[in-house]
Amino acid sequence: MPDRLSALDASFLYVEDHATPMHVGGVAIFERPRSGFDYAHLLDLVGSRLPFLPRYRQRVLDVPGHLARPVWVDDVDFDLNYHVRRSALPQPGTDEQLFDLVARLMSRRLAPERPLWEAYFVEGLAGDRVALVTKTHQSVVDGIGTIDLGQLILDDAPAPPEPYEDTWTPRREPSRAQLVFDAVSEAVQRPGELVENVRSATNDALTSVGKVAETLGDVASTLRTVVNPAPQGPLNVRVSGGRLFSVVRTRLEDYRKIRAEHGGTVNDVILTAITGALREWLLSRGVNLTSTATVRALVPMAVRDEETAEYSTPALVGNQVAAYLVDLPVGEPNPVLRLQHVGHAMAEHLDSGRSVAARGLLKVSGFAPATLHSLGARAGGSLSGRIFNLMITNSPGPQEPVYAGEAKLIEMFPVMPLMRTQALAIGVTSYHGGVYFGLNGDRKAAFDVDLLGGMIEEALEELKGAHW
Q1: Contact, 327 vs 294, CB < 8 A?
Q2: In this model, does residue 220 exceed pLDDT 90?
Q3: Which residues make beta-bridge pairs with 28?
Q4: Under 8 Å between Cβ of 121 and 132
Q5: For position 207, what pLDDT does the model report?
Q6: How distant is the alpha carbon of residue 204 from its chain centre?
Q7: Neighbour count for residue 94 (Cβ, 10 Å)
Q8: Quick one: pLDDT at residue 198?
Q9: How many CA atoms lie within 13 A of 283 on its CB side?
Q10: Phi first, then psi: what are they for 287, rounded to 5°?
Q11: pLDDT tier for residue 211 given thresholds of 50, 70 and 90
Q12: 3-state SS class at 327
């Protein structure tokens, strides 16, 4: 039987265009060890882990006439050096130069005729640091058969990577005749699917997304306000092909102190800091905010499968990522009241008994934020952008150091994709005492994304100094 893309995975290919590439990114910054960590080390590390990620050596092959969804086939010309690339920053190698490079890399689509991922080893960062920038298409990481590359190359202890020897033998690519035969055979059993496959591949993106929404089941059922469009404003415009990327670095202890003072969860405090920043950003854009004004965020959250173990990997990964809509109270001037509003909205989801708290996620063997950010993007990308203003993913990471080979990870920043009419996406990851924000903005509509990043820091300081 052919390894055919699911309807959801195929939709991410159908809706993609030059302005909305459908990949999830990540920026990991490492401290170079005394023993060294260079491009050759990274090639050995990634190459030695590829046997655990067979999808990363496969490409998408279309079926003639779109008689069926595309299939995954082994890339007979797979070239690790093509996918793992080398780059360097000009002196002095500042963070600003790195994030400008990230924005340019993330604005480019992945080559559809090759396996849908890339990694860039970036040298020249000040302070003897190196960075790894990854791009993975949303059709690749499903959390069941395939996890994110960032999850597999990080280990709990430093160790030199094993030398990579390419002994992989790809399977022969099916012929056009075989692809057609398989498609016709399936159509005989499910004749209605033939019409849907042709329609999905040829209609516009909105039609494709609408079809995919029908396949979501578990995700779509969590949305209580699907029929109500999101409030309109500067966050929702037709995006261009350019991107700007900015980051915010904060300390986890600050969120814990605010939680202890005012209640809620660390996630509530993070969302409240973002709410305060969005309030100031909208005011700076001249938006007139009433006291009841809101911005609707799609907040993907891992959920438990009640039929499996409480904190096992199969119970938390895969399609068990629910897309919750949260109305952020940007019209509320009091930071403590904003926190209470956010906490109340999130409590409704947590009270369902299926949402997983951060402490539960951290018990999952092999957990890495990269995979859950990818799964969150899948959940958000499969829904109509008309029902929310922006996507915010937050995945807790390990609070002990992790390593790529012998290089210690210092910081990690997610890069979430933009939808066709959404100018901003925010990813948040906590790691080793820090909370790191990655802000991906449209270069035209969110030209002041750096300003928004500074406002997140100010909103956090406001919460730290707030008293009831």
Answers
A1: yes
A2: no
A3: 132, 412
A4: yes
A5: 43
A6: 24
A7: 14
A8: 53
A9: 15
A10: -80, 130
A11: very low
A12: strand
Report helix angle 266-284 to 252-262, nearest 10: 100
What three-state secondary structure class fits 348?
helix
Q: Is the pLDDT of residue 466 over 80?
A: no
Place of tokens 């006291």: 291
Looking at per-residue pLDDT, the higher value among 344 and 374 belongs to 344
> How confident is the prediction for the chain on average, in pLDDT?
85
Specify whether the CB–CB gap between 122 and 133 falls below 8 A.
Answer: yes
| Confidence band for 362, pLDDT divided at 50, 70 and 90 | very low
What's the pLDDT band for 215 if we cut at 50, 70, 90?
very low
- Which helix (DSSP H) or strand (DSSP E) does residue 277 occupy? helix 266-284
Contacts of 163 (CB under 8 A, 6+ apart): 44, 48
* pTM, to two decimals: 0.88
Tens of pLDDT along 66-122?
Answer: 899 999 999 999 999 999 999 999 989 999 999 999 999 999 999 999 999 999 999
- Segment holding 132, helix H or strand E: strand 129-137
Cα gap 245→422, rounded to integer Å:
15
**Pairing, β 23-31 against β 390-396:** unpaired
Pairing verdict, β 403-404 and 407-415: antiparallel
Distances (CA, A) of 119 to 46, 64, 85, 136, 246: 10, 31, 6, 9, 19
What sign does the dihedral 238-240-244-245 (CA atoms) show? Answer: positive
Cβ–Cβ under 8 Å, residues 56 and 140: yes
**Contact call for residues 226 and 434 (beta carbons, < 8 A):** no
Is 194 within 8 Å of 187 (Cβ atoms)?
A: yes
Give 186 or 28, the one with higher predicted confidence: 28
Could you tell me the domains of the chain? 220-400+417-465 (3.30.559.30)
For 414-440, give one letter per residue: b (16+ CB within 10 A) or e.
Answer: bbbbbbbbbbbbbbbbbbbebbbbbbb
Who's near 202: CB < 8 A, 6+ residues apart?
A: 66
Which candidate, 189, 233, 232, 239, places its Cα nearest to that of 17? 239
Q: What's the length of the chain?
A: 468
* CB-CB contact of 25 with 106 (8 Å): yes
pLDDT over 90 at 323, yes or no: no
Bridge partners (DSSP) of residue 60 are 72
359's enclosing H/E stretch is: helix 358-361
Q: CB neighbours (10 Å) of residue 127?
A: 10
